[in-house]
Design goal:
Blueprint: H1 2-33, H2 37-48, E1 51-52, E2 56-57, E3 64-67, E4 75-78, E5 99-104, H3 107-110, H4 120-128, E6 131-134, H5 143-152, E7 161-167, H6 171-184, H7 201-204, H8 212-223, H9 225-239, E8 242-247, E9 250-255, H10 271-294, E10 297-303, H11 306-309, H12 311-317, H13 323-326, H14 328-339, E11 344-346, H15 348-356, H16 371-388
Parallel strand pairs: 5-6, 5-7, 7-10, 10-11
Antiparallel strand pairs: 1-2, 3-4, 8-9
Helix pairs in contact: 1-9, 4-16, 5-10, 6-10
């Protein structure tokens, strides 16, 4: 009887070991071949993986990087120091004229997936016939960093207008992550992809205070290929609840879990959303005060996620999603801007109308604006600036 139990245990351990090896082989193969994402991540790492103690991360000047391997796009990123001496680069050419406007924001302003001249700040520049400088940053950028870019770099260019892009889908969370990163005092120079957001959660939080089941999951996620395979299967099963809509330029999948961020009610949500909202509001108020002091027109540009823009398609096919909760980030921040007398451009009604006309404004797999989306946004902001006559 004892021998049978030992044989059984040995067989189980052997099977798990074989599965583990198989899982590691599959993971390596997927990293190399699936959509060429390894090349994509490596090329993006050359752009974003540069530590800055004040900004968290930055681009270096003089970059000329071909970003390839993503199924949606191939694009080139070139950077320029713009005359600043602290080894920072921006996705902008040399400044040849007086600066009319500076655009600050995350990857939507930076122009993820499109060429330099296809980003909305450069489209706006072509419409205005005036210099518009793109000071957008890449992944994991928050309103706290927008303010720091404004304070350290943008105001010195003496622009007449500062446009700060605000992405309600994750800007609050990014503020919380950035503050946690600052407090953690962890060296991020070896983080390849998403910078400080990629820090293991137990480096930012107190691992000892986690419940046992979460400790086990974190351990398995880090050390077991079998567990990661299971999680991948679990996530793919959830993602089957995906609505595919037909647009003029092809199909656009809209996963239900696109609303992961947008369904939170701040009064009841996790700390990162509540605290992130406060941090973001504080940073925007600081930005407004600085611009008023310098005599610069300060405008917040509200940038909706694709799940918000195409919400009518989703709600038509899925009655489960609560409209009020889905837009809670958007409405709360818009109300904050109005209460504080902060000028803003709301892109949501305009982009939603384009979506109703079956325009495809976002990439298929990636959630950023495509070339058409960037063009329409630049055109709309141009029309707004001209119509306000300021």
């Amino acid at each position: 009887m004892g021998k049978k139990i030992l044989v059984l245990l040995f067989s189980i351990i052997l099977c798990l070991a074989v599965l583990e090896v198989y899982g590691l082989i599959i993971e390596k193969k997927e990293a190399l071949v699936q959509f060429g994402l390894l090349r994509y991540k490596n090329s993006m790492a050359k752009i974003v993986n540069h530590y800055d103690p004040y900004l968290g991360h930055k681009m270096l000047p003089g970059l000329n990087v071909l970003v390839e391997g993503h199924p949606d796009y191939t694009f080139t990123v070139t950077t320029n120091s713009l005359g600043f001496k602290d080894n920072i680069g921006f996705r902008n050419n040399n400044i040849n004229n007086d600066v009319y406007a500076v655009a600050i924001g995350d990857s939507f302003t930076w122009g993820h997936g499109v060429e330099n001249n296809q980003t909305w700040p450069k489209v706006l520049e072509s419409f205005l016939g005036k210099e518009v400088v793109n000071m957008g940053l890449t992944y994991g950028t928050s309103p706290i960093q927008y303010y720091r870019i404004l304070e350290r770099y943008a105001v010195s260019l003496n622009p007449k207008v500062v446009l700060v892009g605000f992405f309600s889908y994750n800007d609050f969370v990014d503020s919380w992550y950035f503050r946690q990163w600052e407090q953690a005092k962890v060296n991020v120079s070896d983080v390849v992809y998403n910078n400080y957001i990629s820090l293991p959660q137990d480096e930012v939080e107190n691992f000892q205070n986690k419940p046992l089941n979460k400790k086990i999951r974190l351990f398995l996620k880090k050390h077991s290929a079998v567990f990661r395979m299971y999680r991948k299967f679990e996530k793919s099963f959830i993602k089957r609840k995906t609505l595919k809509i037909k647009l003029k330029q092809g199909w656009l999948p809209l996963p239900k879990n696109d609303f992961y961020f947008t369904q939170y009610d701040y009064n009841k949500s996790k700390d990162e959303f509540k605290y992130g909202l406060e941090l973001s509001q504080e940073a925007v108020l600081d930005s407004q005060k600085l611009c008023v002091k310098k005599g610069i027109r300060f405008i917040v540009v509200l940038m909706p996620a694709r799940s918000e823009v195409y919400f009518d398609y989703i709600i038509k096919n899925n009655k489960v999603i609560d409209r009020e909760k889905a837009f809670s980030n958007y409405h709360k921040f818009k109300k904050f801007l109005e209460l504080n007398g902060i000028e803003y451009i709301d892109l949501f009604p305009f982009l939603q109308e384009k979506a109703r006309e079956s325009e495809k404004l976002y990439f298929t797999d990636d959630g950023h604006w495509n070339v058409l989306g960037n063009y329409l946004v630049g055109q709309y902001i141009n029309d707004y600036l001209k119509s306000t006559g300021k």
